Protein 1
Amino acid sequence: MRHLLRGVAPLGGAPTDLLLADGVIVALGADAAREAGDATVVDGGGLVALPGLVDLHTHLREPGREDAETVETGSRAAALGGYTAVHAMANTSPVADTAGVVEQVLRLGQDAGWVDVFPVGAVSVGLRGEQLAELGAMAQSAARVRVFSDDGMCVHDPVLMRRALEYVKAFDGVVAQHAQEPRLTAGAQMHEGVVSAEVGLAGWPAVAEEAIIARDVLLAQHVESRLHVLHLSTAGSVEIVRWAKARGIAVTAEATPHHLSLTDDLARTYDPLYKVNPPLRTAEDVEAVRAGLADGTIDVVGTDHAPHTREDKDCEWAAAAFGMTGLETALGIVSTTMVATGRMTWADVARVMSHTPARIGRVDSGPRAQGRPLEIGEPANVTLVDPAARWTVDPAAQASTSRNTPYGGMELTGRVVATFLRGRPTVLDGVLVAEGVA
Amino acid sequence: MRHLLSVADLDRDAAVLVLDTAAEMAKTQGREIKKLPTLRGRTVVNLFFEDSTRTRISFEAAAKRLSADVINFSAKGSSVSKGESLKDTALTLQAMGADAVVVRHQASGAPHRLANAGWLDAAVLNAGDGTHQHPTQALLDAFTIRRHLRGPDVGDPDGVGADLSGLHVAIVGDVLHSRVARSNVGLLTTLGARVTLVAPPTLVPIGADRWPCEISYHLDEVLDSGPDAVMMLRVQRERMGGPGLAGAATSAGFFPSPLEYTRQYGLDARRLARLPEHAIVMHPGPMNRGLEISADAADSPRAVIVEQVANGVAVRMAVLYLLLAGDREKGTEA
């Protein structure tokens, strides 16, 4: 299988040609056209070429909640969103806290074949925060787990967190923390502030996130291990991470598309589409998160794609599930909020949505490496983006099983046109391509 | 007025209209035959997801005295995890042809969802949602205040046509969990009154500093400033620690002990004596005698607590009338 991507702009630079053959980028520029032979030509005029996107934070819901998403449908959504790899969070049923479950998820991902699915292992047995799960067994399994997280729950016990940070050093793992002090957030429904006071929904204070991040960066410093902060959402959290990095602590941080784009004012609608954990914050927080992403304090954009069934959202706010889908809109949101506004370049987008997430997840080496540069000899994981395309989000048109996107009807700038996974097109002209067709 | 979800749905003139209409309704309630034919043939559903016998019977009496057909629907628990969902309940009421749904729900925003999610065409009247709003309570409080404190000024026993300009109302107690406090802050200030909230700092919501009122932690200072009305809020004993909300094993408690609360924030005979001669004492009920209010205060001649209950029926008649009779006229025109 050979494809010649003609006239694409790698990372938004000067247009050139890319030749993909046998899963690898084999030629660039004039050589590409010369060596193309019978390669299928993709007209890439006006398109930006990015390394295939890598999500560190996806909920695929399988096993257990196949009514909300399956590995198959979630990885289709990922491909449409420009992803070539996703990390599948561990809060499934059963929880991914054993080698058996992570190998099951790995195999489901391979069978689906749309993206590489890297299972995340739970930190604690059953996400209960009491006892370490068999992290070593998961690391040594066929799934080669390197990212461990109780996401959805916070590893709130400081001793357990310390032990997890220490233990994963043996296999170069990372603990990805869902920073939420549970006692400060019992029953919490939305950001605690002016809007929560008015609409009468129980508050989720910024300090409940910031206190855990502050503790964890100090723990990571003390035991000299790697910490990854998931879905950082407040201005204070950005400040703490900035401080920790200045001290040389090995911390990385993630922002979600929704914390880059939406605010707690939306809770005035009482529409549970806007209910998410951590909650949407204030406009000042959104600005701080954007600034942190632009200046490198925040390392990656992770989707926190959290599909939920209609019945879990078509109800009163307090009864609804937390979470929103994101795989199919993430690139559009980042493009609209960060690139179209001039705050980031496409090279920056490649850094925060591909290179760095792959490096944090330790999936950036070997023959099936992700997040590599667009250079000769590298795996042909390529995403083509039309940076000028304006499009309107249609929840019903998404590949995810669930419809809980907060962006329905919103116009975004920048759209994924094609995705190549090791040289095979999974998406062309914005449409999924089944294996063996193209 | 299509729905009444929050006092924010009412501007000054709309609020005065409700109070004036309530005054007309109240006059009819002194007659031997209290029933009016106004809403004959219309169906009002009292949809109560939370126990509140007093509020339900107040709405029931109001609807019946306007000759509406009343259906009481008591739905314990809520949502997907416990039986029928709010949506299915709404679709059921829609199929039965409800003209108005009076809803009491433990979740803030549930009436807003009923009115706006596209499940139901009926007028939705919020009878208390979580810690959000309870607009008819604020209206009956405003009605009671106006009658006592503005009636003499304007030469009408009910104060018809007047708002609450120049009056100072202190609202004392658990503001954090109180839909009554939120509703009264909004409505009383819309009507021109000055409101001071009095509570321990633990029971003032973060963000309340942006509300159009003053906030004090000291009841005695506020009483010395000479308020025209003092509204005591119910304090729930479960706020004092022990088993926590929403699955937390324990909660730290919002104040140390009932005795300390009473000492700092309770209205007793001593504090009652510090109030100006004309000031009235209010409570939305049910009272915890001996906690937020002593028997001396609750039973004093200044207390208008029983009258608040009676005014509740008149105010709810007014709201149902304005929601349904107005709606019908509009429908006829179209």
Note: The radius of gyration of chain B is 20 Å.
Protein 2
Amino acid sequence: MADNGIGASVPRTEDQRFLTGTGDYTDDTALPHQTYAAFVRSTHSHATFTLDTSAASGAPGVVAVLTGADLAADALGTLICGWQVTGKDGEPHKAPAHPVLAADTVRHTGDAMAVVIAESAREARDAAELVEVRYSPLPAVVSMQDALAEGAPQIHADAPGNLCYDWEIGDRAATDDAFARAHHVARLDLVNNRLIPNAMEPRAAIGDYKPATGDYTLRLTSQNPHIHRLVLAAFIQIAPEHKLHVIAPDVGGGFGSKIFIYQEETAVLWAAGKVGRPVKWTADRSESFVADAHGRDHETHVELALDADGRFLGLRVSTLANMGAYLSTFASCVPSYLYGTLLQGQYTTEAIYCEVKAVFTNTTPVDALRGAGRPEATYVVERIVDQAAREMGIDPAELRRRNFIPSDAFPYPTKVALEYDSGNYRLALDRALDLAEYAGFDTRREEAKSRGKLRGIGLSAYIEACGIAPSQVVGSLGAGVGLWESGGIRFNPTGNVLVYTGSHSHGQGHETTFAQLVSDYLGVPFENVEVVHGDTEKTPFGMGTYGSRSLAVGGSALVKAMDKVIAKGRKIAAFSLEASEEDIEFGGGNFTVAGTDKSMNIAEVAFSAYVPHNYPLDELEPGLEETGFYDPANFTFPAGTHVCEVEVDPETGVTEIVHWVAVDDFGNVVNPMIVEGQVHGGVAHGVGQALLEGCAYDADGQLLTGSFMDYTMPRADDLPDLTVETTCTPCPHNPLGVKGCGEAGAIAAPAAVMNAITDAIDSSAIDMPATPQAVWRALGG
Amino acid sequence: MYEFNYHRPGTLEAAAAALAAAEDGQVLAGGQTLIPTLKQRLASPSDLIDLGSIAGLDGVRREGDAIVVGAMTRHADVASSPDARSAIPALAALADGIGDPQVRNCGTIGGSIANADPAADYPAAVVGLGAEVRTDRRTIAGDDFFTGLFETALEDGEIIVSVRFPAPRRAAYAKFPNPASRYAIVGVMVADTGSGVRVAVTGAGDQVFRAGAMEAALGGNFSADAIRDASVPSDGLNEDLHASAEYRAHLVGVMARRAVAAAAAG
């Protein structure tokens, strides 16, 4: 293994600029003659309204005040949902119009009604306060139960009963039959709490319009700049794709929240055209809380049927999923195709049936957040498995072992439409138990008891599906896009390489990982490789980064491109070395005539391609640049076991995580250090969900957790040192054998924490977040 | 932030004059509450009078058997003060647990107690240690200083100069922090002063208060056992997302016992 090649823990090249404050974030850019936008946001969760903008329009520095009426006059499209889910009744989901600026009705606090453009950010905000809003409040529905109740206030005329869809997957009859045969049935009601994403960098955008050419440019915080361009062009119709340049420079975290096409970025681009000057908007944190799409928010009833030996006969799941006030960009697929399809877990459960009602409420829209559906699925499966173990008196690890899909059963067709590619679940579980010293737990529990603490241990044997694919399948399920990825390799005449990826790095370390991949594969020094991403005029059309797809899909696209480079290089070398192409071998960056010492380095080949003085011009074009597109044959299926050990202080209800073991199968690993960092971040995210983060609204739809004073993000001292290891069953269907690691921790962690707490307090009557008060109450306080 | 006039007087007298002359003036100390409030446009004072340039307002010093903390003394400086740590370690420890390092390096004792946030830590020290608050006009007993939710005995234009803490025989502060803000959901300062026991509770009510029944029990037997079953009534205690009144009442008992145990252990 080279020092910088595949498998090496290369320090992240991007960190120098991130850690020294020299990154290039959207807010760092100031364009000449730039103006600033401030949004007028609803303080009501449900109301009709009228606006009087006269005072604001005349305020100092104001360039324009734009409203829904101006949008209508320009015939601009509304925001879209890019995935059409079909319900039990065969009808498509309800996707009511989501205006860029509300025209006459607001449906959640923070809904944007107008945008003020001014010479300075302060003047824009001052003037926004001068926009007079006359509200006629409407009754609000905040909880999903209330929204579905007979006679509930209607949020959208075209979504009767506030129902977006009623969807199902699996075999209902077979599942009913399994329950009829059951020796034991375990049941739980679970809440998967709503989360607010809180990327470190708030959303920001600068729209720019050049009247002379008709060109629009949008710089913004995006995880998928080409998707932004496509939607803004094709659906909202601000400018055609070839006249719209989208740049997502350094982006400070996304976690899904920067996938979506929102009101604000759209309005900023449109406004730039209206005022003929650049328009900039940077969210403040208070705006992020109400205007970034939230995550999770499920209420679920789950039942597991077991035979006398503890084998899983059937799983029945009924879920309400909160969509918020509007259907966000990919909201519909999260609690359906990214959730119900993962309920097989790691187990051979014989029959599965899941139904999901997606519900509109007067709250901020909900969409994908780190894991997106898969954390919710793992939470349901791993909580009910533990519940069954407890009720049947079987050790939770042993119950899992009895039901694992055996390692020789892959590819494994699930009962919920997927085919698992590879895995060895028993190996990961056993290794995790060893590392966690599971066998010695009872001694530790007794010792803790002597100190007045309740100690518990919890397992989570999670499954996830990364690199959502293939395009033909997702298309048949309602996706409006393909889910392939692009990659480009451009050799420069001097032999160094520009790598173009359609994926987007916003913290994942692609600039390092992809450079390792290219350096290793092409035999080019690591420092001679530069990764370019996040600019629609530089990179080929690409789908962006989410769902832990970048290496599995984007990396594989680069392999395609590199194979083309090598194929062309072989021809060039054959000509230069006066050998036949079939005799040219490539390895270590050198094209060699087999069995000889005649050889050309790939840098020499590149030079020859750009200075084609001795070159087969009648057979071959000059230049050495290739693009690859890769559409995966399947998802990848990372899996593993996390073990969490906690101590609960029964006097206060405080839970302390005292030990954490993560054993994950990510397939082949390019950079172990980055992978471990992703696991750390994911576990922190999942611990945040389990113990700390609980988005809350009051009955009127006012956000109670609207700042860091009340919304608790995980901090370093909430976590112990993590013990992280990997196992490896390579992905069999992509050329790198990689699976994806960005979400695993967030998927595995919540169930591990809650199972540990349940074990500690000997009660499953507790939901996330397990705050001190919640634990104290569960203990009878 | 709305516009305001900014003043940086060099003397207390000039500060008082600027405050008196302002239409709606506000003193700026460490700014840890005021600045975020201004940034969120939740307040719009006409004038800010910054005390940062007035000599003699900061620092910790001994005064007989007492510790005197200047109004502009940063929490971090109280936490690290050798005098505070040797004479009243509970006070230094309390200061060391306020907010986070950024807050402790900017926030001041004068700003904290003048703001009288019901969840702030310092009020428990002022009342629990039987301190007195010295202003540019008079001295106010700690017990009389806090008068309600964000309300104090300070008159219009009155500026805190220092706080004098008599050293107790033994004392400790136990805090149950809000997991998000790390303000006190409940904080209890217990002090054996030599002339009685004081138990001051912050975070639980609309202002800091003394727990009389606990003081009486501890007066006879300064041990956690003496208040084993003691609590405070939950009636009227604060309720929010993080803690019900009942939970707060329960935590007052737990924190009081932990403080007593810590103080007794010395």
Note: Chain A is about 30% helix and 25% strand.
